Every structure is written in structure tokens, then in C-alpha cells.
Amino acid sequence: MEKQNNTGLGLIKTTIERVQNEKSLFNSALKKLVNSSEEELDGFLKMKLEKKDKSNILSLISVGQNLVLKALDGSRLIYKAKKTFKSHIDSDFVGWGLNKSGIATPETPIQVHEMTGDGTFINIFSSLSGNWNQKWLSQDQVIEFCETLPTWLRQDEYATMFLCKINENKPIFEDKPQDNLVVVCVCVFSDGLSVCVDRLEDDAVWRGEYRHRVVSPQLITLSA
Hints:
Elements: H1 8-18, H2 25-34, H3 38-55, E1 58-60, E2 68-69, E3 88-89, H4 92-95, E4 108-115, H5 121-126, H6 139-148, E5 159-165, E6 181-189, E7 192-199, E8 213-217
Parallel strand pairs: 3-7, 5-8
Antiparallel strand pairs: 1-4, 2-4, 4-8, 5-6, 6-7
Helix pairs in contact: 1-2
């Protein structure tokens, strides 16, 4: 008896044989896959799985809510905001250079997502719409959010994440966002808010089951 081919390409070839008399787009697409190498097929399948995983990391929970941060002059910095973050302020805000004056920001609509899948910081923030220059908030805006919209912070000592610039006066390079972006995490404790800062490229995996939250600017889509 002929040995059955159970590889990905073998299964696709078998399927094509079954539908070879059908002149359909599906049949045509399968034929294109058969002409691919094993390496190309593996890459295709991996890309599809990664795309699916990526889209399942975050779920928008502020839909229908009018969450807006007022225009700010950028003067407030997190390492000085002891009245806002009474529990703890990470010393790395100074050590990593986040102690420079910020920039003014206009009135900014924001959105809040909740984690529903596992991911690193890169996975989490990549899953937001827009480019890296459209995803960050100033330190002043983070402080404003914590003071004016505290009920939108994740409770029970779990994290609410914000993407911030290290130096707000310098640009973000889309191919190397980690050069000028960090992740600010705020947690609610019994004695007040705690805030820490992490590298965007940190490879620690955050678990979706804990429903950590992510706050970012809301992209405004203009209808035609």
C-alpha cells in the first residue's frame, strides 16, 4: 500500500485532487499554495496564526463613552506627581531620562481597552490601530487621566498601561519605537496609586486573564 503523505503540502494536494473538476476560486488558491515550498507554507500559516492571536489581545471597553483629556501644557511630570501617585513612584522615571520638560497637547479623545489574550508589550501596543506616533500619551496626560478618570483604571492592584515618550521633544522612529517609547503602568492599591515604567521591548508575557487595561488616544475616522 502506498504510504500516505500527512504533511501540510500533501494534504493540500489531496484536497486539490478531490476538487480538481470544480472551476472555483478556492481550487485556484489551493493550487497556488501547492506551488509553495514547505518553508513558504510554514511562514504563511505562522503569519495567519500570529494575525489571529494579535487581534484577540485587546477588547475595547470604552465604546460609546465620551472620554476626553483637556488641553494641557505638558508641565507635569510623573516623577514629581507625589500627590497623584501616593503609594509609589518608580525611580527609573529619573534614571531613564523621563525627567525632562514635556510638550503641550490639545484636547484629546481617548479610548480604553482591556486585555483578553496574552502578549508582550510589543504585542499589546502593536494590536492598537494606527502607527506608533499615534499611540502615546504625554506624562501630563497620564496624570490627568489618573486624576479625572480614576474609575477607568483597572482595580484590584492590576495594571493600567500607557505608552509614553522618553523625551517628548524627540521623534519616534516607526521601525525602532523602543528608542523613544516606554510603557507606564499604574496600579490601584489601598494606600493610593503606584506607578512604574518598563521598556517597550521587555519580553515578559502579560496574561489576558487578569484583564489589564490599555489607555491610548482615540483615532478619529472622518466619514466620506
